[in-house]
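Review form for a predicted model. The reviewer records the input and the model, then writes brief findings.
Reviewer: anonymous (R2)
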Amino acid sequence: MLPVLAVSVLVRRDDRVLLVRRAQPPFADSWAFPGGKVLAGEALAIAATRETREETGVAIRDLRQLDLVEIIERDSDGMVSSHHVLVVFAATADEVAAAAGDDAAEARWVAVEELAGLALTPDTRRLLTAHLPWSSR
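Model under review:
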């Protein structure tokens, strides 16, 4: 099994962050940054912009590479069941409305005060803590 190349985007607007509730594994029903698979021949930044729009309806700007995440899942026998390599970007957006699309079960802008109460993926929580000074309030 070859690793799957994907992107995700930490999108900020004022004191809110754009999150999606994942409908598919890995981490189904957890909240994460919008993102998805990179298509063959597609530049990473183009994939990040496309996936954010497809999953949330939100257009992003000021895109910059932020981090790299590897998600390797194993079955009960220790065999690799999935392997995703995510290039994580940061971006901003002007739009207020977010609507779930593509494979997102839900999409919404989340205020800082709400983050602690959400079932975030481990890497989403880590990246929010590391890169958004206001996330620790």
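Findings: The helical segments are 44-56, 122-131.
Further findings: Residues 58 and 113 are 22 Å apart (CA to CA).
Recommendation: see findings above.
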